[in-house]
Design brief:
By secondary structure, this protein is α/β, with parallel strands linked by helices. Helices cover 38% and strands 15% of the residues.
């Protein structure tokens, strides 16, 4: 009966993960906190209604310390003495730059959203995660943030996204090293190029496929994943032509 909290859960990957977790038996998943800045999204509202309280909408704006504190208190009350087992830091942005990198003028804002806010959310929920049985944190990243693979993505002008996801990877490793002795598992995972508002309709995979593949690792958790940079596995994509192969192996840093 694990408990989950997913940020950026109003749409796309976050919403799909929440829906798939909610469809699991109660013996496996008891509560899914779907965190968004605004909780009035129609798709999320429908999911909340359909799941009869298993999915809990959570208004969370980590830019606002009061909002973050209130969200932690709400989760603590709903857990009723239990801990939070799994946190998925999924919220993020991917703006593109018109022209070469010298034209990039949004790095501070993108860094704040993709890295700093993930850190603030993680730090705020650490006391509840310590009380959980799983003690697992999954940070949604991308192979576009891999320095080793950067040559595969020269066609993308999402410079700030690439830079900040590389920083997210380092943030993950720092947490993994600091809290391994407490039994925590922090890992970064790339969900693939998905057909979402962020990824566009020309992307490789349906969002449901990426969500299912990510959740395979998220459900697993455990010390063996701590500090790793994971790539999802999708059958038939192990040796696909083009920049992306979804082979289930660790991605190079």
């Amino acid at each position: 009966m694990a408990t989950y909290l997913i940020t950026g859960a109003s749409r796309g990957l976050g919403l799909s993960m929440a829906a798939q977790l909610a469809a699991s038996p109660d013996s496996e998943v008891s509560l899914v906190f779907a965190a968004t800045r605004q909780v009035n999204g129609s798709e999320l509202s429908e999911l909340v209604k359909k799941t009869s309280g298993k999915v809990v909408p959570l208004q969370l704006d980590p830019n606002d310390p009061e909002s973050l504190r209130t969200a932690v208190e709400l989760v603590e009350r709903r857990l009723e003495g239990r801990g939070l087992d799994v946190l998925v830091n999924n919220a993020g942005v991917m703006p593109e730059t018109e022209g070469k990198i010298e034209k990039m003028d949004d790095l501070p804002e993108v860094f704040h959203t993709n890295v700093t806010l993930a850190h603030l959310v993680t730090a705020a929920f650490m006391p509840l995660l310590r009380q959980g049985k799983r003690k697992s944190v999954a940070n949604i990243t991308t192979t576009l943030g891999s320095i080793c693979l950067v040559g595969n993505y020269t066609w993308s002008s999402a410079y700030a996204y690439k830079i900040t996801k590389a920083a997210m990877n380092m943030l993950t490793v720092q947490y993994a090293q600091d809290y391994a002795e407490e039994g925590f598992s922090f890992f970064a995972i790339s969900p693939g190029w998905l057909r979402t508002e962020l990824g566009g309709q020309n992307a490789d995979l349906p969002v449901e496929t990426g969500a299912k593949a990510v959740l395979k690792y998220v459900r697993q958790g455990g010390a063996e994943l701590n500090g790793r940079f994971l790539n999802i596995h999708v059958e038939g994509w192990e040796n696909a032509p083009g920049p992306n192969q979804y082979d289930g192996k660790d991605a190079p840093w």
